[in-house]
């Protein structure tokens, strides 16, 4: 091995060690910054509690969520039914617990589909530019011209009432936000020196996108996905309340409010507890998303990149 080759290898090793130390320092600073805000920890605790409730629902729920006992209908909170029963004698607590499963499943599915489509469109538009960018962004503008929930309502109404159709409707509406965010980030990242250097060295487009573009646009996407979970949960409950989502006896929070609203004065727990569950879930994801937005500030990432990443 020549002396020149040895020097090059040493430089690469040194650069790799420096990069690793900078990444470790950035992650450590990010974690400390996140923990320093009490609201961030509250949001994280609520989301973790929601996830654990959904995962261990069969062990937490005291009764079968779809089991009916008409003799016990509209009973108030008691030792046997901590949150009371609904108009069919079903245990409200058990239905709330299993409802967390339904809400998270729909939220993760919609956010996952929207993120995949939006990221693909945003990266393609931002990196290709020209007529490709213009055409894709005009499509996004057309969809964004309609109120999101109204468009989802129309699509769900055409497809028919079911949880699957709600997921399709919300995904069709939701991907546009990811496309615009990703495109904006790609336009900024592709002008960085390390990307231009890779292009001059003849690196393929797919490799540049996979190695340099995508990792550096994920910060804003993660924040948007977390906040979008709150929007999807709330939209799902709203569409189910209107009869376009889950149908009885499926334990879904919006459906529980819809079927119990006639008993709001005589048995308020039938409506109040599902409403409280929706509020806590939306609050948790919003607080967590705000915290992630603070610590995943693109300016912080850029300062690290300028030092060698």
From TrEMBL:
Predominant place of localization: membrane
Subcellular localization: Cell membrane
TM spans (from-to): 39-61, 106-127, 139-159, 165-182, 221-246, 266-289
Record's bilayer topology term: Multi-pass membrane protein
Biological source species: Halovivax cerinus
UniProt family annotation: Belongs to the binding-protein-dependent transport system permease family. OppBC subfamily.
Any one of the GO CC terms: plasma membrane
Keywords: Cell membrane, Membrane, Transmembrane, Transmembrane helix, Transport
Ranges of residues in domain ABC transmembrane type-1: 100-289
Name of the protein this chain belongs to: Nickel transporter permease
Superkingdom to which the source organism belongs: Archaea
Pfam families: BPD_transp_1, OppC_N
């Amino acid at each position: 091995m020549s002396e020149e080759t040895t020097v090059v290898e040493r430089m690469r090793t040194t650069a790799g060690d420096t990069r690793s130390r900078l990444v470790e320092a950035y992650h450590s600073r990010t974690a400390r910054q996140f923990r320093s805000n009490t609201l961030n920890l509250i949001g994280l605790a609520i989301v973790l509690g929601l996830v654990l409730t959904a995962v261990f629902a069969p062990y937490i729920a005291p009764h079968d969520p779809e089991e009916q006992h008409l003799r016990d209908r509209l009973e108030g909170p008691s030792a046997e039914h901590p949150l009371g029963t609904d108009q069919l004698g079903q245990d409200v607590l058990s239905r709330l617990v299993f409802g967390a499963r339904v809400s998270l499943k729909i939220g993760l599915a919609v956010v996952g589909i929207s993120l995949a489509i939006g990221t693909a469109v945003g990266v393609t538009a931002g990196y290709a530019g020209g007529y490709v960018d213009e055409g894709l962004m005009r499509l996004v503008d057309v969809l964004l011209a309609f109120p999101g929930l109204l468009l989802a309502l129309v699509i769900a109404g055409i497809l028919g009432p079911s949880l699957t159709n709600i997921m399709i409707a919300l995904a069709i509406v939701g991907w546009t936000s990811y496309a615009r965010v990703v495109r904006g980030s790609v336009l900024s990242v592709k002008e960085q020196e390390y990307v231009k250097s890779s292009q001059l060295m003849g690196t393929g487009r797919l490799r540049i996108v996979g190695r340099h573009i995508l990792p550096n646009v994920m910060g804003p996407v993660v924040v948007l996905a977390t906040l979008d979970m709150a929007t999807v949960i709330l939209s799902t409950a709203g569409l189910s309340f209107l009869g376009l989502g889950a149908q009885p006896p499926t334990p879904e929070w919006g459906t529980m409010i819809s079927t119990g609203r006639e008993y709001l004065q005589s048995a308020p727990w039938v409506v109040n507890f599902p409403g409280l569950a929706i509020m806590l879930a939306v609050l948790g994801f919003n607080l967590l998303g705000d915290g992630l937005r603070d610590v995943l500030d693109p300016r912080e990432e850029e300062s690290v990149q300028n030092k060698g990443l």
